[in-house]
Amino acid sequence: MDTEISDVRKNTKIVIDGALYNVVEVDFTKPGKGRSVYRLRLQNMRDGGVTDRTYRSGEKVDAASMSTEEEQYLYHEGDQYIFMNSKSYEQHGISEKTLGIKKNFLKEGQSVIVLMFGDEAIDIQLPITIDLKVTDTETALKGATITAQNKISVIETGYKVSTPAFIKVGDVIKIDTRTGNYLERVNTGK
Amino acid sequence: MIMPEDEQKRLARRRLNLERRASVFKHIRDFFNEQGFLEVETPIRAPAIAPEQFIVPFQSEDWYLAASPELHMKRLLAAGYENINQFSHCFRKGERGRWHNPEFIMLEWYRKGADYQIIIEDTEKLITTVVYKLGFKKSIKYQGQEIDISLPWPRITVRDAYIRFAGWDPIAENDAERFDLDFIEKVLPNFAKDRPTVLIDYPASQASLARLKTDNPKVAERAEVFIGGLELANAYSELVNAKEQEKRFREAIEQIKKERGQTMPLPEKFLEAMKSLPECGGIALGIDRLVMLLCDADKIDDVMAFTVDEA
Fold it and tell me: CATH homologous superfamily for B7-154+192-303?
């Protein structure tokens, strides 16, 4: 899809010679009376390689037509996380590197939105917050009940997060999927 | 996806820069006042503006938001006003980045009887005066680099700069596209880091509203000032030939029509006034960038209360 370079933003996905790139950074420069120059930092979505490209005003890039589908997270094997379209039963793998922090919030059977470029799964979208159960935590230190001291808790996906001292095993807590930070306790476990 | 930062925190963090910004305005006003300049105001919204191939204006109904106050200031000069200055809000579509916001403040001043060399001397005096008044000595520090601002600032011709840093002569060879790209990639990055640079004598094809040298019509009497990698100001010995100006405007209008499909009107009132425009020199200086330099700010956002993304 032809797109004016001036409409390219951070996280726009573009295609160059058949390969899909994510725009990591757009550096706009322009001599007062001259042409605009856009320097893009691009990350290859397949191998993670980073490259820089320069465009002048008026040039067009091929913006990738992306689609989304709802899929279920199945399991991970090596560095691949496997998702399945529950209608077509088609399975797609996404690398651990691409998922980044998001890999910590995947429960088996969980529904996620998968970003597709043709037949290829590129990335997933998670809700901004997600509720997960605490499976292990340190016992609160004696005498620390009144202070706002934090401790490490483990949630059902195995991810370790810093929580307030009052969190117990079985509690359900809300986590920000962008930062991985604890937000609040949703339910007290039995 | 990222939540907008809390506005109070952002504005609190920018406060020192905004206070310094206010001091910069005050010192500039004092400077021009002491020199007998008249501070003027001209319309932000007008029926016609200077057509420029690479400056995209915002439209306001059938009119335009000013991309520069130049034409109206020259109409004042044509009517007998001699030395005038103005801070004006200018608007340029699509210009957003570390050094750009589509709305910004331009300082322009014009001197009757002056040429671009005299205007550059004004600029040297103005900026060093502001720097001293802010309490700096002979140098400022910008992004970790000490910059010696003692006068005079080194001048280099466009021809010499391109031969030295890009390996070709843009006066002999007219290649406007390569000119802009090489400027950003080869010429500007090679300017001395510890001194301001004044780039002078542009190719005639980049003259815009500047007059050509009488002894060498391939060269326009145009100069630009760079400090710390920032393009700060653009000066001209002003073109006063209305016929030549109309020809350049018509060429620009045609280019704009071809490239952007936009029909720009000819600035008739300005061209009429230009018939009585005296010999003069003038300059446009980006105030936000000057404040960036004086606040050691690496992006324009840090010296504005509200950028386009925060408005």
Answer: Bira Bifunctional Protein; Domain 2 (3.30.930.10)
